[in-house]
Design a protein that fits this description.
Blueprint (H helix, E strand, L loop, with lengths): L1 H18 L4 E3 L2 E2 L8 E9 L8 E10 L6 E9 L2 E9 L11 E10 L7 E11 L4 E11 L4 H9 L1
Antiparallel strand pairs: 1-3, 2-9, 3-4, 4-7, 5-6, 5-8, 8-9
Length: 159
């Protein structure tokens, strides 16, 4: 009977994991609390979450602007326990439709983390610059990478 209850509990847990959302909303902070940025960020979604090594992860930034943006750069810096580990500058128009008109828009950035990425806490800082390198917004948020990817967890569970 105990074996049956254990199996039933495992089925229940698996069912819950299928119901859970595959995207995760993140707590976003502006780099400078009192600055009135031209671009207002309303949220960041990470898919899939939790982030897994070797799996492409998409960061979708929801934002709005009162001024059209014809182009610019997206600057991303990632720190691992306060040490800078990654930096990238991309053309904004490769991450969203340009020109960006007034109102709501989204910026999407996808990245596949190497399988050797160490687990732990990371901080991502994203700056959006116009064509003249004026800072339109700057946000920061934390995320973590676990000890195992889901394929490693499945291999450990089947052992």
């Amino acid at each position: 009977m105990a074996g049956f209850q254990s199996n039933l509990f495992i089925v229940f847990l698996c069912s819950l994991s299928l119901i859970a959302p595959f995207a995760h909303a993140i707590d976003v902070k502006y780099c400078k609390k009192n600055k009135d940025y031209d671009v207002k960020v309303s949220g960041v979604d990470i898919t899939p979450y939790p982030i897994e090594r070797g799996v492409e992860t998409t960061f979708t930034i929801s934002a709005s602007t009162e001024t059209p943006i014809s182009g610019g750069n997206l600057v991303i810096d990632v720190s691992y326990y306060w040490f800078g580990v990654y930096s990238e500058t991309s053309d904004l128009c490769t991450k969203t439709t340009c020109p960006v008109t007034t109102g709501d828009f989204a910026i999407s950035h996808s990245q596949s983390l190497p399988s050797v990425t160490p687990p732990g806490s990371y901080t991502l800082t994203m700056k959006l610059q116009d064509g003249n390198k004026n800072e339109l917004t700057c946000i920061t948020f934390d995320f973590s990478i676990g000890w195992y990817s889901s394929s490693e967890e499945a291999a450990v569970a089947s052992s």
